[in-house]
Amino acid sequence: MKRWAGYAKPYAPFFILGPLCMIIEVIGEALMPKFLAGIIDYGTGQADISEAAPFYRWLFAHTGGASPFIVAIMCAMIITAVLMMIGGVGGAYYGAKASVNYAADLRSDIYKKVQQFSFANIDKFSTGSLVTRLTNDVTQIQNFINMLLRMCLRSPGMLIGGVIMAIMVSGKLTMCLLMVLPMIVVSVIFLIKVALPRFTRQQSKIDALNSTVQENVTNIRVVKSFVREDYEKEKFGKANGELKQSAFDAMRTMIMMQPAMTLFMNATIIAILWFGGNMLIKSTLTAGNLTAFITYITQILMSLVMMTMIFVSMSRAMASGRRIAQVLDEETDIKDNLSAEAENIKVTKGEIEFKNVSFRYYKNSDEKVLDSVSLKIPAGTTVGVIGSTGSGKSTLVSMIARLYDADEGEVLVDGVNVKDYRLYNLREGIGFVLQKNLLFSGTIKDNLRWGSFEADDEEIKEMASYAQADNFITSFKDGYDTVIEQGGTNVSGGQKQRLCIARALLKKPKILVLDDSTSAVDTATEKKIREAFANELRGSTKIIIAQRISSVKDSDLIVVLNDGRVTGVGTHDELLAGNTEYQEIYWSQIDKKEGA
């Protein structure tokens, strides 16, 4: 509760003013039936004014007759209605302000938490699930808070006020209410017990549906190229059907509850009309008081219905709150070093060393992705990393920027353990061009400025030229202002790679990692890009992961990986002379060329 209350604290005035405004409406609800009873009983002369309440006797005496008395009561009712409207509008306004601000802060904290997640943390939650928790689950809590602020005082206020006024009108008739109260209480308890797990299940089905949609839209080109639209429709239909069923199961409680509450309400009113009618015949109750009493009982029962709705909304909010808490409570396995000493440690040279590094993706597995890797990369050198698919090449370089942490051993940058850096300082000194080249929605210029937000147009154009991207960019109608569609679908794979390389060059990092980042460009273009690296990033350490030996043969050092182990380190000629794995890769590629 302390966590959830913390989000309300900055908006305490809204949380206080909203319910207070609703009290005005509650007071009006209590007074209106009494005013109406006064008009029926004393304005029409059906009851003796001498037996009326002191206020009515005083008002009747000062207005001078029945008609002015009715006008005065009606004026009081109009003023009360206006005040009720002001209170209702104020309550709705402050309730909306409080709930929307609360949800915005909560959503912001969830997003910040997700940004702190390592790859391992993100793998624990699906993308669709995180999207659902950031949107739908937060909305459920927002709706609950809005409803709570509008009804937390109004509903109990109507209940208490209605009971008090009903007792004042007729204590005997109030006993009719006791017949239905136990049934209502049992219904609410049943509702909470049954609804909560069903709403939790419904949210998980929303996760599954979002994941299906996200996966399909992201990979729509693959779906179409394999003509798998029918399969994807069936897959979506299944997820959609499961969500439909879970939603129906969750709402079934409401489907049963609403008619049950209406039945209780009507049964109570029938009982009141029966007993009240007999009292009216015996002249122990006036017509106005019977009308007022029915109104009060209706208010009491409506307040119970509203409280039931609060409990339903609370059940949904609790289910969503638990899911949100799972994200907020998730322990980030890569923790930032926030010490004062770490603040001043920055990547200045680009020297890298792996000391007996081992790593597993699944910590309870015996199989190691990297096994006792020891390797030293001098600052300013160009290093090629080559090996078969699944040998651990990408995992190895991911550890330099702490995208993963080693299970055993140490990774050092400039002689400092990467865990002793602040994550910002460490990653600010490292540029990545990943296997999967990602561009964001926006212009080409916006995407390139991810490398340096301060870069001017001339610098952007220069780095794009080094990456062999300027020619195709300027061929577009809008040039550098061309809008990149979501996922970069309006540029080719090779163009996307070159844009990502230009973005990394703009960063001017001390360490540049290229993870198979020129696989979609021809060898001539690749050669020009490598020459740009040698000239523009002369003092930087460059690590090139590649499948083609031609991409790494001119490197100062080449590292050969096989099944997570370093099996060779040396120049192209040294490895070709004495390393079996390198020889196999080399000759297989030579054979392919000859065969072509």
Short key terms for the protein model shown above:
four-stranded antiparallel beta sheet; elongated; alpha/beta
Annotation, overall tally of beta strands: 12
Unreliable stretches: none
User: How far apart are the termini?
Assistant: 69 Å
Strand content: 5-15%
Structural class: alpha/beta
The 3D shape can be described as elongated
Query: Within the largest sheet, what's the order of strands?
Result: 6-9-10-3-11-12
Mean pLDDT: 83
DSSP helical segment count? 22
Kindly provide the radius of gyration, computed on alpha-carbon positions and rounded to a whole number of angstroms: 36 Å
Give a verbal description of the structure.
It is a single chain. A six-stranded mixed β-sheet has the order 6-9-10-3-11-12. Strands 2-1-4-5 form a four-stranded antiparallel β-sheet, with no helix packed on it. It has 596 residues and is of the alpha/beta class. β4 and β5 form a beta hairpin.
Short description:
By secondary structure, the protein is an alpha/beta fold. It has 22 helices and 12 strands.
List the helices and strands and how they pair.
Blueprint: H1 2-8, H2 12-43, H3 54-63, H4 66-116, H5 119-124, H6 127-151, H7 154-169, H8 171-174, H9 177-218, H10 220-225, H11 229-281, H12 287-328, H13 340-343, E1 352-359, E2 370-377, E3 382-387, H14 393-398, E4 408-413, E5 416-417, H15 423-428, E6 430-433, E7 442-443, H16 444-448, H17 457-466, H18 470-475, E8 483-484, H19 493-507, E9 511-515, H20 523-536, E10 541-545, E11 557-562, E12 565-570, H21 572-578, H22 580-595
Parallel strand pairs: 3-10, 3-11, 6-9, 9-10
Antiparallel strand pairs: 1-2, 1-4, 4-5, 7-8, 11-12
Helix pairs in contact: 2-4, 2-7, 2-12, 4-6, 6-9, 6-12, 7-12, 9-11, 9-12, 11-12, 17-19, 21-22
